[in-house]
Amino acid sequence: MGITLQTQVLIIGGGATGTALARDLSLRGVQSILAEKDDLNAGASGSNHGLLHSGGRYVSNDQDSARECKLEGDIIKKLMPQCVENTGGLFVAVQGDDERYITDFPSYCAACGVPCTRITPGEARQLEPNLSHAVIAAYKVDDASIDPFKLSLLNMSQAVSISSRLMRRTKVIGFDIQNKKIARVALRNVDTGKELYIQADQVVNCSGAWSKQVCELAGIEIKILYSKGTLLVTNDRINHRIINRLRRPSDADILVPGGTVSIIGTTSIQIENPDDIHPTVEETDMIVREGAAMVPVLERTRYVRAYCGVRPLFLGGMEERGKDARAASRGFAILDHAREGVENFTTVTGGKLTTFRLMAEKTADMVCGKMGVARLCRTRTEPLPSTEECQWTEPGLSPKKWMRSHNTDDIMICECEMVTKTAIDETIVSLRNINEKTSLTDICMRTRIGRGACQGAFCGTRALAYLFERGEHTAREGLADIGNFFQERWKGIRSILWGDQLIQAELTESIHCGLFDEELYSSLEKITD
Amino acid sequence: MALPKSHNYDPKHVFDIMVIGSGIAGMAASLFSINRKLSTVQAGSAGGTLFTSGVLDLMAIHPIEEKKVWSNPWEAIAALRDQAPLHPYARISDEDIHRAFEEMVSFLNSVGMNYRFEKSRNVRLITSMGTIKHTYCVPESMWHCIKAHEEKAPCLIIDFNGLREFSGRQISSTLQNEWPLLRSLRVSFPGTEGLNEVHPVHLAQALELSPVRESLAARILPEIRNVRYAGFPAVLGIKKTPAICAHLEKLLGVPVFEIPMMPASVPGFRLKEVFDSSLPPKGLLRLIDKRVESVTRLDNGNFILNIGGPHQDQFIQARGVILATGRFLGKGLMSDRKEIFEPLFRIPVWQPANRVSWHRERFLDPSGHPINSAGIEVDDSFRAVDGTGKVIYDNLFIAGSILAHQDWIRMKCGSGLAFATAYAAVNAFINNFVNSSGRVTA
């Protein structure tokens, strides 16, 4: 029998919505525990474009989403500016694109209150020299890029500083339902296998693509369409602004710059199961081909990484309206499971990164209503505080800080992405604060280790040596850790291994297998569920 | 034989052999060629051997998907010939593989780079990762590492502040179950106090000086106590490693050894230094840091190689070419989104059907990635052949990791493959063009 914890609200899922809900509730004086089966942003929240939509993307097919994007985008830019790079955006059409859509776009935008300004193709190319000469029309919009990791880390960080508790690598395995209420939730630590219980007044399912599975534990059926989206990261930043293809939403038609890179995507492939997904060679080829129609350099540039996420598209009552994942609404839904006879259980699903705060607000409103808490939402008006510990996910910030600090004791662990010993120390400290040991994969998410040109071959080795020096590793588990770290990196590069990236992958393998024989220890790697 | 950059070789002068590539296979081919009195010219990047680990594998694992480790490399090769008859080793006799190894190692020993192996035994060597590497022939300076590990003797691993890739604590922690008497000690390397980062080659150069060794030993000696071996990162000198080891052993009173670490590392640097300094005096014309840009073939079959450099083009005529340009890292093979190709001769590359099947879903999949078996197919004389098995040029020989149907990374056969195939290629050239009268035409 494991221990039993008490809380007011149990939040299941540590993505953008779950962490924002923890923050929203804590600001209303409501205590919560957030249980995440993997790590913060391990699902779709960490594997999207990092695009703060102006709304222009949805003006033709989803006006409600377009309006929400416009309003929420303005709030986020104002209250969370440290997570936003206000790049502005363009919508561009190339020869062969639908002329009618080009002409109608301003009126679609106007209907949704989304500002847009027509410019000439020449002006567009002046703003974005890498645009194709085949561009025939262009509009300026208010898109921006956003760092989703920093966003979730900062939301969670403020929640924890007030009253919330984060439990990573803790998976919900069952609900004990009595008298139409979840009396107790059973959870298991996925590393140690240790089980525990949480008693909560309210349980909120924010598990994104896994919300259907969590509902099933309570005997509730919900209809979710899984849409897999793959994106590619370039080695260099090739655009200043967001570049959208001016057409009805389709594949590989948004190029988002962020920090020192650009991201092109996505695909939209309907899948059956949200687990064990990875970018495929076929998707990668399609993205390169399609993206190159707008920005031809995408055909020749070096890609550092591919990744994919699963969009949970809530079908509600319209599930029979055809099975096209792109046609389903990107709007969100808050489901009060009192309807199915479980009074203290709520699921929030669907939606998009741009509306994460609004989703949390509406969910908190419902949950607080059920608990009789009358306090109003504060995230709509109060700025998101910054903390030191997660400044490192922003490309380019850590070298600036490193240069500024003049700390002669600081040692560079990763030369590609300029990550220092201090950055790793901060990660170790922040995880110790929640009683956890740091793994290479943890460091990889919280700093930029392993994301640069060396694919982790060098910095991963140095960071591992450092974890031993710091006593975070004390025995053979270090070999499993570096195996898991490489496997995480591998998922991101396997589909883009040609040219320079293939050379780098061969070097990594010749060092870590050719010299260190690490593949002979590969049974030490964790088996993912 | 340093050559002025302005010199233009007379393209009418005919060399016997042009070796293209400056990795282990290219160096071996050059050595075997000059040892057989062939006039030999070699081109390749300056750092061809820098990324080698310095330990010389022969053959240790087969079948790789079973991770079956062989303690006798010759038995592994025999099993391989039986089960994977396309592997390059299947075209060479044990005797020739052994002779190739012997000839290379005796050259290295003759120039002060002492290597050690036992003919029928693979050894287990600890690495800076705390893993056990299965290999065949190691620098003499690593031999005690094998012994100490076998005996599980009380042993101290010394590491240095600022040497980021090497943690003695990582090694002792990772191996603690099988080797509980392994301890670690961190000291500042003499003269690097206050430095954030120290680099292996700089430490190795510093250790060439006797006062540095004495100062270092003084920092370690109080911790030696009852230990029977002292292990170091592989930084014990560049050119005088045996003398440095002997001096440290005298100062510390125990045998010392080196532990191989992350490339680019000192043992690779030592090999580069030895090849750079010792082969030209034996008659090799080395075009350092020159790439062969293009090739044409004369009616008589001789190749004219256009050698590019930062300043001007040169032309070399040779009766035969040994292509030892390596794989992707060496740029012997190149790739785009659609295919793998050989950029210089444009000879066919045997490869998986398409990019989808180049790599497996798990990076550390013991079965290895299918792309690693891609490469150039050859006949028994190591001449490149096309898809039908037909020899492409009767005087174009292929050696080293660019060869198809092998996975040196997983099989642990990289150096042996380089030596043996270079040996076979040089001998095939001699058989076809020197011993026989006149040229054999395809």
Key terms:
heterodimer, A: 529 residues, FAD/NAD(P)-binding domain, D-Amino Acid Oxidase, Chain A, domain 2, 3 domains, nine-stranded mixed β-sheet, 22 strands, disordered C terminus, B: 442 residues, alpha/beta, Rossmann fold, 2 domains, seven-stranded mixed β-sheet, four-stranded parallel β-sheet, 18% strand
Structural commentary:
The complex is a heterodimer of chains A (529) and B (442). In chain A, a hairpin with an 8-residue loop joins strand 19 (332-336) and strand 20. In chain A, strands 5, 6, 7, 13, 14, 15, 16, 17 and 18 form a nine-stranded mixed β-sheet that branches. With 529 residues, chain A is α+β, with helices and mostly antiparallel strands. Mean pLDDT of chain A is 89; it is low at 317-324, 390-406 and 524-529. Chain A has three domains: 4-44 and 149-223 and 328-371, FAD/NAD(P)-binding domain (3-Layer(bba) Sandwich), CATH 3.50.50; 81-145 and 225-314, 2-Layer Sandwich (D-Amino Acid Oxidase, Chain A, domain 2), CATH 3.30.9; 388-524, no CATH class. The longest helix of chain A is centred in the N-terminal third of the chain and has 17 residues, at 63-79. Chain A has 14 helices and 22 strands. Chain B is α/β, with parallel strands linked by helices and 442 residues long. Chain B has two domains: 14-63 and 270-434, FAD/NAD(P)-binding domain, CATH 3.50.50.60; 128-260, Rossmann fold. Chain B is 30% helix and 18% strand. Chain B has helices at residues 24-35, 73-83, 94-110, 140-151, 168-174, 200-206, 210-224, 241-252, 266-278, 408-411, 414-435; strands at 14-20, 40-44, 115-116, 123-126, 132-135, 138-139, 155-160, 182-187, 229-233, 256-259, 285-288, 291-297, 303-308, 314-323, 334-335, 340-341, 396-398. In chain B, the strands form five sheets. In chain B, strands 1, 2, 11, 12, 13, 14 and 17 form a seven-stranded mixed β-sheet that branches. In chain B, strand 1, helix 1 and strand 2 form a beta-alpha-beta unit. In chain B, helix 1 packs parallel to helix 11 (414-435) and helix 3 packs across helix 11 (414-435). At the A-B interface, helix 7, helix 12, helix 13 and helix 14 of A face strand 5, helix 5, strand 15 and helix 10 of B.
